[in-house]
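Attaching the record inline, Q. Sequence:
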Amino acid sequence: MIVTTTENVTGYRVLEVKGQVYGVVVRSRGLAGNILAGLRSIFGGEITEYTQLLEETRRHAIDRMVKNATLMGANAVVMIRFDSSEIGQTMSEIVAYGTAVVLEKQG
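Structure, as predicted:
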């Protein structure tokens, strides 16, 4: 499955637009991770516990989006974007979304 942030894919043409597709994941860092992150925030710098959590969550959201696009009969997702928000003080929501399409290789 081709997944891209661009509207067009070089060497391919869009045969059919299947529609909007998305993958949603809500995750929470465990108590130990929150304590470590809280301690790190006192001293400044990157909070690796949260960086790792968000990287894993984005990958999971993309995987869900691709699964949904496959169920729609698409072989690519174009114009993908991410959105994120916090739920309470301990949970993060990540949404990967884009347009599911059927691409055909040109000439």
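Residues 84 and 94 are 4 Å apart (CA to CA). Helices lie at 31-43, 48-71.

More tomorrow.
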